[in-house]
Amino acid sequence: MAEKSTILDVARVSGVGLGTVSRVINHPQTVKADTVALVQSTMEQLGYVPPPPEKRRGRRVGQSYPRRPLSQILLIIVGDKGLKWTLNMAPVFASVLDGIEKACVANNTNLIIKQATNWDALNHSLDNN
């Protein structure tokens, strides 16, 4: 059995942003006519049927939805010369940080990096945030 198409599929195939597809569905008068036609054609092609208005998620006046909590990772770097020196002297460390950041973005996780030249400075930084 084939998977149901999603709004993300419509955006990808039609080459527009997710917000544009959402506006075509919810407020087509705010989108250019040719874009509306393109998105609606793609929706038909993929067999995408948006949920009825009462089932749609989103912001409505007087109605709120619980937000999915954003996970957070705190990366602590303590060294006597600081993060900038570490990145300049050990380029592999920059690659590791880049990989960590990409993994966090892919998993909807917020990466917080704290750096200090010693533990006292780190404690002070953490206490003030």
Number of strands: 2
The structural class is alpha+beta
Strand content: 5-15%
Question: Poorly predicted ranges (pLDDT <50, ≥5 residues)?
Answer: none
- Characterize the main sheet: 2 strands, parallel
Query: Which range best describes the helical content: under 10%, 10-25%, 25-40%, 40-55%, 55-70% or over 70%?
Result: 40-55%
- Tell me the distance between the termini: 51 Å
Tell me the Rg in angstroms. Answer: 23 Å
Mean pLDDT across the residues is 78
Strand arrangement, major sheet: 1-2
Oligomeric status of the shown chains?
single chain
**What is the molecular shape?**
elongated
Tally of contiguous helical segments: 6
Q: Order of SSEs, N→C?
A: HHHEHHEH
Task: Lay out the secondary structure.
Layout: H1 7-14, H2 18-26, H3 33-46, E1 71-78, H4 83-89, H5 91-106, E2 109-116, H6 119-127
Parallel strand pairs: 1-2
Architecture overview:
The protein is of the alpha+beta class and 129 residues long. The protein folds into two domains: 7-55, 434 Repressor (Amino-terminal Domain) (Orthogonal Bundle); 71-127, no CATH class. The protein has six helices and two strands. It has helices at 7-14, 18-26, 33-46, 83-89, 91-106, 119-127; strands spanning 71-78, 109-116. It has a two-stranded parallel sheet. Helix 1 crosses helix 2, helix 1 (7-14) crosses helix 3 and helix 4 (83-89) crosses helix 5. The mean pLDDT is 78.
